[in-house]
Each structure stands twice: as structure tokens, then as C-alpha cells.
Amino acid sequence: MSDLTDLTIEEAHALLQRGEVSSVELTQAHLERIEAVDGLIRSYLTVTAGQALDQARAADARRAEGEDTPLLGVPLSYKDVLCTRGVQTTCGSRILEGYRPPYTATAIEKLEALGAVMLGKTNMDEFAMGSSTENSAYVVTRNPWDTERVPGGSSGGSAASVAARLAVASLGTDTGGSIRQPASLCGVVGLKPSYGRVSRYGLVAFASSLDQIGPLTRSVTDAALMLNAIAGHDPRDSTSMNVEVPDYTAALRADMQGLRVGVPREYFIEGMQPAVEAAVRAAIDQLAELGAEIREVSLPHTDAALPVYYLVAPAEASANLARFDGVRYGPRVVAGSMWETYRQTRGQGFGPEVKRRIMLGTYALSAGYYDAYYLKAQKVRTLIKQDFEQAFEQVDLIACPVSPTTAFRIGERIDDPLQMYLSDVLTLAVNLAGICGISIPCGFDENDLPIGLQLIGPAFGEEQVLRAAYAYEQSTDWHTRVPAL
Amino acid sequence: MIEYEPVIGLEVHAELLTRSKMFCSCAVVDSTEAEPNRYVCPVCTAQPGVLPVINRQAVEYAMMVGLALNCTINEFNQFARKSYFYPDLPKGYQISQYEHPLASNGWLEIEVGDSTRRIGIRRAHLEEDTGKLFHVGDHSLVDLNRAGVPLLEIVSEPDMRSVEEVEAYARKLRAILVYLGVNHGDMSKGVLRFEANISIRPRGSEELNTRTEIKNLNSIRSLVRATRYEIQRQIEVVESGGQVVQQTMGFDEDTGRTQAQRGKEQAHDYRYFPEPDLPPLHISREWVAEIGERLPELPDARRERFIQEFGLSLQDAVVLVADKAVADYYEAALAAGGDPKIVANWVTGELFRLMNTAGLEIGGIRVAPEALVELIALVEAGKINNNTAKEVLEIMFETGRGAEEIVEERGLAQISDSSALEVLVERVIAENPQQVQKYLGGKEGLLGWFVGQVMRETKGQANAQMVNEMFRKRLEALREG
Ligand SMILES: [Zn+2]
């Protein structure tokens, strides 16, 4: 039997089902490894050991009663942007230090209903704004493949916890690449579902029209299992779509016969790390080997994605973050007047990147600038969406890199916001278009750092994305490599 | 001297008395009574991560108002975020309709004096109410019971030209909201709030001059007072060679004056943008038709019906329908068998007088419509006369007891027993021979004096008409005999 912390959901489920391991043992093994390893990795902000063992015991009891679900008793981690009742939820920000939500996010509620165990809450860039997790107000999370390097972000804690075997799987959120980019940099699978596929209720909003919850796992099958659990319409989220949820594991097949894969010429950009391009091109060849028909496609408005994103997302964020005023929750810095109290509370509660984006967004929405910035950005957003719609008339999937580079060094880009923003240049158009995308391991660079392949599908095209990802994964062994810790 | 006319538009904020709030399932309660922060949830306290869900009933209520105000109900509806910081606004933005209101281009007809005027309705849009702040010593407390209660903002065109029209518009609009059952109209509960936009111009001019906006008027009385004051203030400014400055004003109830609000209330940039948490709301034409069919009878239609069906005067009908509860009371009385005109007289006369004196609305009185009809029936049957009936009504009003019971107990019944009255008539004739002689001698005017003797004897309860007739017959018989 392999180490308990190396198990995928699928493998853990098999052992639990056969009674070869209990959820308590599985959970205990993860808690011990967190204890041993997370001092170095710093993937967790909060570890809920006692509660996790309670949940594990409850899961074992449910199993003893004859119940069985793929997640019953499986220990998971959740990004700290997802609300968990009674458990501190900070979004990586000082402004929510000590905040214990009175309710649990729908996606987590669904996992808990299936018997999943929560190990704790993972680190992230403050309010999911960043690409390295260095913007966390609390700790810097390290990449398990090279602890001098970032895990990516903003779901860096989730990706690192899965890569470092500190959780079987995790939930992250993706607003412009925040699941796929850290998954790529940490060598795990990260799925950003289509907008409206998973309820956002309980996801502390960064950019409401872009945010989506998705899984980070160590296999494509696990990603499908997690999506099965969390997808579906939620009456509490009017933007969640009432579209039938298929069994995503049923779509997984080892070949790609009949699938047409587009390769967008605009996604192999100048300045891309050669090893990344080489690995992704090799992966595309492999897709052809598996029976896919490869075609070049064009997404002509790709260049506009970054500026559009940095208008739309901050604009929404500027309003979303207005509620953090110290009046009802979170630390309050009491100053002379009400207005001064606001200023001090927010001034001390938010970090520099969050402030930068609030200012950007406030500016973009201001009288006299709205038309030139926000409104124009929305119009260009429509063009980006149409690019994909037109591409998907010709192909079933798009294959491209996730991140132009592998994991960079801690501190390398933190003082250069524009350089940092470029980390997401290949992922954020997917959010703007509301479609789905996955990152799966497709190789390693000269420093043994993981490289990710991005497969993009149309809105609610998760089945074909997962099918292709699975076929690729089964024909390669990149996903079997484990970081030495 | 130049004669000025005011140009006035009103914005009315009406809470919609739905079961639950605009975007969450918390109950809509009387926020002046409820224990603070009891009717709140993660959504209306703006906990991180929550999302709004549109209340269908609020949309339907808004559609009803839109249709009653002859508006177009727009198919494409979008909510927007209106951003500003204040502790009674939990999210730091209010969800409101901005570019795409639910209803637009309607009108409302008002009656002032003998004339009818049509006031344009520019738009009516849905939004959410804020919480309330209480200032205690040097700090403030926030109550979020009201936060998220559906509000309909109804914006008129600047079509009103006098304080009287402003009052008529406000009363008519209030009546319509109450008729529709979407608002109970009790302004002491803050469920209706007004803002007036006022400018003046020389009568006959068509220009639109600089206007001021008076905010937070919480009753029709305040609206009328503030409007009257502000018109006069602007006239004085202009006549003394000054210029009206565009500004937001408050109204001081104590001094009765309007004054400019300073600082934060001015020059807001609300940074509106479409609410990304709510997809556009499409209102199908079928839905509009369905709501249209469900509209109850409105004040104007009811007034016409009262005139047609019950033969009431225009004036009585207008007075009766102005308050839905009064009109309902009136119709309940008719259903209990009352005569339309007689009941109308009693309601608009004695009953209104008693209500005014007591400061009560019709919903708060202890005289049921059936009880009023019972009282009227006693008059009609000759058991009591009109004056006694008024006294009895007063007792009914105070005690809630039935007319018959009061009449019985206090011995107020009119004496119509002819044998009893005959005894009295005989006695008066026997005891007053000189008066009888005078009568017989040609002073027939003394008949009233004879009747008066019996009325005095019976403390006014004798059936005066019968007594009159009996004396006449008896005395005439003496003459012949
Ligand atoms: Zn609520």
C-alpha cells in the first residue's frame, strides 16, 4: 500500500470502500504530514485538526451504516476565500482577521453533504488578487518543487497543499487564472469550470462576473469527481445556471478520436520560456497521437484580454470590497470621526495590491471615465467572447500553455505589478469569455519545475475538456512525479 | 409685480410590503417596532460571499404600481450598483435600477378644486432600502431590520404648479399604493418618503429654472410645508435680485424652514455599473398581462362606480374613495343593508367628525359598519330621532357597544306609543286652558308650544311628529265640538 498521503480521491475511496483504511487514519496521516511539512511550505492559514477528526469519525460512522460516496471520508483543503461556518475565513487579508462566517459556501456544503473532511483553509493572495500568493497578508507559500519559488496564485496555498500531499484535493477559485496558473506551477490538475457551473454563494467576491470555484487535484479523474460534487444550480446564486450536471467521470476515455483541437497562434507569445513552449508543443503532438485532429485557430482579440481584465475585474472589486468597513465584522480601527474610522480601518486592513486595484476600479467607474474605460472594456469583452465562439465552431477544444513561464523566485516580480500581471496573460481570456479550462502537467523545465498544458472548452464543455485531459494524462507519466520534500 | 409659478416634480420612495426582503428571505417587518437587528441574515448584513436573489413578489408589486400609473412596463430590466459609504448601507452599495427601470412614461390624474390635471410619471424603479442609524451620545448604532426592504422609487415629471397639486398628487399616489395592497400608507412608519424638486418662473413662462431638491420628507404634511416654504424662499431670493442655487436641502420640522445640506450629501459620484450578481430580468408581455388582470379596482374607478351605482354626489364619492379603508367601510355598511346616501352622510359627517376629534383612522375605530347600519335603522324605524342618534353614535364610538343596547340602557328610545303620548297630550290640554282658548281663538302658531310641553316632559324622546299630529287633531276636535 502506498503512503496514505499519496492517494488520489479515487484510490482513497477504493481503500475506504474495502475497509482497508478509515477516514480517521487517512485524516490523521494528512494532519501529521501538515505538522511535519507545512512549516516549510506554508500552504495552510488555518488547520482545523479537531474538526477534521470529528468529521472523519462521522464519515466512518456513515460508511459503517452502509453509505458510500466517492468523497465520504476524504480529507480536503479549501482556499480561504470560501466561507466556512465558524471557521476563520480571511481571504488572506488583515481586514478579515478573526472573521468567522455565519454560513458555509454552497460548494463546501455540497462536499460536506457527501462526507468530505475539511483539513483547513489555504493561503492565497489577498482577496485573490495576485499570481504568486505573495500578496497574502499572513505568510508566503512556497512551491513544493523548489521552496525558493512561488506556488503561483492566487490559489497558491491550495495548489501547494495538493502537490505537497497535504490534502488529497482542494477547492480554489479562478478569476483570471487563479486555479490553472498555480496548478501549472505546482504540477497538479486545476479546473476552472464555466461561469455559472458552480455556485459562487459563499465565495468572497473579487470580480463577480469572472470568479468561479473549481478543484485542484492530482488526477483528472479526481477533478471530474470533485466537479460532480460541486456543480449545479443554486437558488442562492442567480448567476449559477440551471444546466443539467452530467456524470463527468463517465466522459473520461483514453482516446481522443473525433475530437478537433485548435491551437491558437496568439498564445505562443514572445518572451515565453522555451521549455514551456517545447513541452506544450510536444503535448499537442501527443494529442494528435491519441487521435485528435489538430488545427490552427485564431483568437484575434487576445491582446486586449489583459487590459480588459484589468478594467473589469478592478471595477467590480472596487464595489465588492466596499463592505469591508469595520462596521459589522473584521477589525475596526477607531479614529476621531466616522469617516476617519473608515479611512483607517480600510487603510490598515488592505494590502498594497488590493488598494491598487480598488483605485483602478474606482477610477474606471468614475463619472466622465465610465464610457471610456468600463463600458469600452465590456464591449471588447464581447469581442473576446466572440473570438472563442467562432473558434469553437471549428474545433472542440483549444490547447495552449497555461503560464508563459514556470515558477518564478519569491520576490522576483512582487515589485513589478505589470510583470506579475503577465503571469495570467494566457488564462484570463477564458474568464472573460465565461468558458472552461483545465491545467494538467505536461512536462518539466531545465530546473525540474512543472509545466502545464491548458485545454480550453466552450461554456459547459467540461466533459470534452476532462475527456481530453484524461486521455493525455493516461498516456503520459508527468502526473506521477512527486516533489521531493 | 411679477407673478411667479412653481415648477415641481416629486420623487416618492414607497416601501413594498412584500413578505420577504428584496434580495433575501428575511421578513419585512415594521422597523419602528421590531427589536433591532432581529430580521437580518448573511445577505442583508452583507457578509462576505453572499449574493442577492430578486424577490419575484417585489417585481410583481412594482409592475402593479407601474400599470396603475399608466406606465410602460419595460421588458429589459437591469439592476445596478450605486456606490457610497455609510454605516446604514451594509454592502457599500445599493442595488438599484438605473439605466433600465421597470416602468416608465406614465401619468396620474389629480383633482384640485373643480379641475383635473394629468401629472406625468417619468419612471418607477426597484431598489433596496437602507438600515437605520440611532445616535446615542457620541456614538451611533445601526439597525439593519430595514436594510434590503424593497423600495419603489416613483419619479414624476416636473408637472406640478402649486402646493395644492403637490398635496393632491401625494395623496392620490398614496391611495393608489394602498388600493394595490403594496403599501399600507402609514407614513409614521416611514413606508412612504418624499423628495421635491422645486424651481420657480414668472407665470406664463415656459423656461425651466435652477431647481433645489428637498430630501427626506416623511409625511405629506412635511412635504406641503416644505414645498410652500421653499417656493416663497425662492421668490424672495429672486425678488431681492439674487439667484436660486442648485442644491440639496433638508427640511427642519421645528422651524418649518428648508436649508442647504452641506458636505457629504453633495456632489456624489455613485459610480453606477450593472450589478454582475444579477442577470438582466426579462419581463414577458404575458407576465405583464397576467398582472394587469390581477389589478384591483383603483380609486378613480371606484369613485365612478360610487356615483353610478349608489347615486352619490361627486364630492361624496371623492371623499369616500380617497382612503381605501373608508371606502371599504362604506361598502361594508351597504352590504349590511344601509341606504347608500344615508350611510354616506353619516360616514362623511358624524363619523369623520368623531374620527378627527379623536385623531383616529377608520381602521382604528370601534364602530363596525354593521353597528352604524343598526344605528341608522333605529332612526329610520322612528325609535330614536336624529339628535339622539348622534349622541348614541358618540357613545358607540367611545365604548364600542351596540346602538340598541345603548338606547335600551339609557332609555333613549323615542316614545312612539300613541296611548302613552295621548295621556300626555290630554294632560297638557287640561292643564293649560288659557293656551287652548288662544289657539282656538286663532293663534294656531301655539301648536309648537303644545308639542314643546310634551317634548320637555319626555326629555326629547317623544316622537315629535306624532305629538304634533295628535295635538292638531285634538285641538281641532275641540274647536268643532
Ligand atoms: Zn436578510
Question: Secondary-structure blueprint of this entry?
Answer:
The complex is a heterodimer of chains A (485) and B (481).
Chain A: H1 9-18, H2 23-41, E1 44-47, H3 49-64, E2 75-79, H4 106-113, E3 117-122, H5 156-163, E4 169-173, H6 180-186, E5 189-192, E6 213-217, H7 220-230, E7 260-264, H8 274-289, E8 293-297, H9 302-320, H10 338-349, H11 352-365, H12 371-394, E9 397-401, H13 417-421, H14 428-433, E10 436-444, E11 450-457, H15 462-474
Parallel strand pairs in A: 2-3, 2-4, 7-8, 7-9
Antiparallel strand pairs in A: 1-3, 4-6, 5-6, 5-10, 9-11, 10-11
Helix pairs in contact in A: 2-3, 5-6, 7-15, 9-11, 9-12
Chain B: E1 4-15, H1 56-68, E2 72-73, E3 76-77, E4 79-83, E5 93-97, E6 103-112, E7 115-128, E8 132-136, E9 139-143, E10 150-156, H2 163-180, E11 192-202, E12 212-217, H3 220-239, E13 247-252, E14 257-260, E15 273-274, E16 281-282, H4 285-294, H5 299-310, H6 314-321, H7 324-335, H8 340-358, H9 369-380, H10 386-399, H11 403-409, H12 418-431, H13 433-440, H14 447-457, H15 464-480
The structure holds zinc ion.
